[in-house]
Design goal:
Layout: E1 22-25, H1 38-54, H2 58-72, H3 75-83, H4 87-94, H5 106-113, E2 118-122, H6 127-137, E3 145-147, H7 160-170, E4 177-181, H8 188-193, E5 196-200, H9 209-212, E6 225-227, H10 230-236
Parallel strand pairs: 1-2, 1-4, 2-3, 4-5, 5-6
Helix pairs in contact: 1-2, 2-3, 5-10
């Protein structure tokens, strides 16, 4: 097991992108706008799954779902830890959704493609879900690989072990990497590892804590850059490689 030592310069001036050679993107609400609201479908299917699996009504299933998301990083992790759930059926069920609300975004694909170096997706969702969304966006060809929750051995972000497994599998040098995320707390470990971090800021969807969670801690030093528009942010970066022929 590789242990990632904290970057001793982690609390220095905000890092830029001059040394970045690997670009790491979260998937949901990062590569497509939250307005697509795919999670509403996933949310509903998680509630349905929990209700059937635990034999509880929808209200109790929803409570368990949100409590586990807050306490364990993902609802799946909570179900596995507390109830010993075998995850394959859960992932297949909850990601069986309609992704037609996601529109093709060739401009985003071009903005990512022209970044110098490797491009990877790192998601708490499943590979199949990521493939469906990236294909719908029309940018699946841009990425070298997808590191999903199965690849992380079901350790979700923001747990440090998830990032360690990602680093081990992808052979990324953290101090030469940038991480893009819509959940601010998921940037804490990348910051400690030495990555340059970018918070792709979503609107606050509602008053409950699971809605506010994406914003919690966003004022911390682990958030180096903030954007409301990923494509425009990438297009404005000063260091870019020439587009391929």
């Amino acid at each position: 097991m590789t242990i990632i030592e904290p970057d001793k310069t982690a609390d220095a001036a905000p890092r830029d992108f001059r040394e970045v050679e690997t670009w790491i993107f979260d998937l949901d609400n990062t590569l497509y706008p939250p307005e697509c609201d795919l999670f509403a479908q996933v949310d509903q299917r998680m509630t349905s799954f929990i209700s059937t699996y635990l034999g509880v009504d929808a209200v109790e299933a929803k409570r368990i779902q949100k409590d586990f998301y807050i306490e364990h990083g993902t609802t799946l992790s909570g179900l596995m830890t507390v109830y010993g759930l075998e995850p394959t059926e859960f992932l297949s069920f909850v990601h069986d959704i309609d992704v037609s609300a996601v529109l093709a975004d060739a401009a985003l694909g071009q903005a990512i493609a022209t970044l110098p170096g490797r491009k990877l997706v790192f998601t708490n969702g499943s590979r199949k879900h990521a493939e469906n969304v990236l294909h719908r966006l029309g940018i699946d060809h841009v990425f070298e690989d997808i590191f999903d929750i199965v690849s992380a051995e079901y350790e979700p972000k923001p747990r440090q072990r998830a990032y360690e497994r990602f680093i081990e599998a992808s052979r990324v040098e953290p101090r030469r990497a940038a991480m893009f995320e819509d959940i601010a707390r998921n940037l804490e470990v990348p910051h400690i590892m030495g990555m340059t971090t970018v918070w792709v800021r979503p609107a606050i969807a509602g008053p409950e804590r699971h809605h506010r969670l994406s914003h919690e801690g966003a004022e911390g030093t682990h958030v180096h850059h903030v954007t409301d528009n990923l494509r425009e942010f990438l297009e404005a970066l000063p260091l870019r490689s020439a587009p391929s022929e």
